[in-house]
């Protein structure tokens, strides 16, 4: 039981970091798209 409790938070944090990183990359891409489109 403790092995599962040790693994779950780590997987959750890794997934959270990946989602945040992808979100920033996507946001930066949209920002660049609008910046180039405005000019």
Index terms:
transmembrane helix, rod-shaped, 39 residues, Small hydrophobic protein, mainly alpha, membrane
Overview of the structural elements:
The protein has 39 residues and is an all-alpha fold. Helices cover 95% and strands 0% of the residues. It contains one helix and no strands. It is rod-shaped and about 55 Å long. The mean pLDDT is 87. It comes from Streptomyces coelicoflavus. The chain crosses the membrane at residues 12-34. This is Small hydrophobic protein.
What's a quick, concise take on this entry?
This protein is mainly alpha-helical. 95% of the residues lie in helices and 0% in strands.
- Derived from helix and strand composition plus strand pairing, the structural class reads mainly alpha
The helix tally amounts to 1
Major beta-sheet overview: none
Question: Helicity level, as a percent range?
Answer: over 70%
Overall 3D form: rod-shaped
Beta content: under 5%
- Mean pLDDT over the full residue set: 87
Protein name: Small hydrophobic protein
Organism: Streptomyces coelicoflavus
Transmembrane segments: 12-34
Pfam family, one: DUF6126
List the topology elements.
Elements (H helix, E strand, L loop, with lengths): L1 H37 L1
């Amino acid at each position: 039981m403790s092995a599962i409790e040790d693994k779950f938070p780590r997987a959750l944090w890794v997934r959270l970091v990946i989602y945040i990183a992808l979100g920033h990359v996507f946001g930066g891409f949209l920002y660049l798209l609008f910046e180039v489109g405005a000019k």
